[in-house]
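Cytochrome aa3 subunit 2
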Amino acid sequence: MHLHRYEKIWLMLGAGGLALFIVLLCVNAFAMGMAPPSNMEMIDPERVTETPPFDKPGLKQVGDNEYDAYMTAFAFGFAPAKMEIPVGATVNFHVTSPDVIHGFQIPETNINFMVLPGHISSATHTFDEPGEYLILCNEYCGAGHQVMATTIIVK
């Protein structure tokens, strides 16, 4: 089969561009140590339930109307199952997973991140309105994904 000279040029440019893209992707992924955005706190995913403070997940008051929420996302739930906070409280969420990738989303807030095994993902939100806030897993994590939720009750 005979290829025209311009077809050969375009095929070489396309193949060269693809090769350059793959090389740059590998350099970014391996040589530059690219990782999920966070403060890069990590723990052993096999020992999440034994590692403080994730061995006793829950709310811990750290200041006047400020709380740290240490949570674990696991197939197919969150620990703790429910939390209560006062109106106007600022909550610093610290979430990790012992098993697979999960999502952590609180609808109608700016909280939405991925929870990777062993990585401690963090975000902060101030709850100014009373009510029940649903926490959802928005990353497919298995057959029971649709029932993975918990609530925050703001009083």
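thats it. The chain has a mean pLDDT of 89. Residues 45-154 form a domain with the Immunoglobulin-like fold (CATH 2.60.40.420). bye
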